[in-house]
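job 3f2a | input accepted
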Amino acid sequence: MNRRDLLKAAAALPLAHTALSNPAFAQAPFPSRNITMIVPFPPGGQADLAARPTAQALERILGKPVIVDNRAGGGGGSVGNAQAARAEPDGYTLLMTLSSLAVLPEADRLFDRPVSYEVAQFAPVARVLADPTLLAVPASAPWKTLQDFVDDAKKRPGQIPYGSSGPYGTLHVAMEMFAASAGIKLLHVPFRGAGPALTALLSGTVQALASAPGTLKQQVDDGKMRVLANWGAERVASFPDLPTFREFGYKDVEFYIWAGLFAQSNLPAPIMTRLREAMAQAVRAPEVVKTFETAGSPIAYQDAPEFSKFVAEDSARLVAAVKKIGKVE
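job 3f2a | predicted structure (329 res):
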């Protein structure tokens, strides 16, 4: 190398050092492009209800488009969950999913199937909703009370069809918990998500459904269906006259269909902090609060530390329930 080349190389060294040491050069501010929020179900269910107003608020707060991507497939959201788990941990692929996140890997193990993802691959960002599921039937159904339903199911084991968002999804587990406690056998009819299952109930294809208050309220108000019981420990504000399963004597029947935002577990800390801050603003936005309250599903926000603890505790309870239920189709 001649003298001129040496001088050029030496002059470039400070600039190279600056580029490596200065974050402004090393990494563009987050976000610098569109964000995808995966919803592992079709439109119309609890996760979709949580995602759309939240995404709109995040778009305004972060200054970049936040695109809701419904990636239905597999049982109970497994395909979308797995796609989010495999995404780059850069904050540009997020997941709005339900409590079935923890159930599905356990179901895979129960049936000796390859596990498509593990809960440990995700980092909770914020909880948005946390509602007990409600037992709904068509308005034309003969059952006026929960006891009517149970009595009929005992007379006709395996003949009353109920819909779900897929095997071992939130709606399936809730119904099987109830059926096991009541000593009845129902006919499980899985769909690709809660939206199609709700449509099937309205059309009469199925005769029962466990779903969140926010996805049922308008249909009940319009006289298209009725609700018979509430899986929560307490009555819900949007259905104050609806008794809980506990009130009916089913002490071990309790289930919540929460919706929360997740990123990948190895997401850089500064990006996680930015997302947490943005979500704290988003769930307090007046238009978001109004949307959820109108749907009968008020915000149940938790920041990442509280949500992480909640997910761990709820997941342990649900995994135990799946093991108790065992192999069901």
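job 3f2a | Confidence is low (pLDDT under 50) at residues 6-26.
job 3f2a | closed
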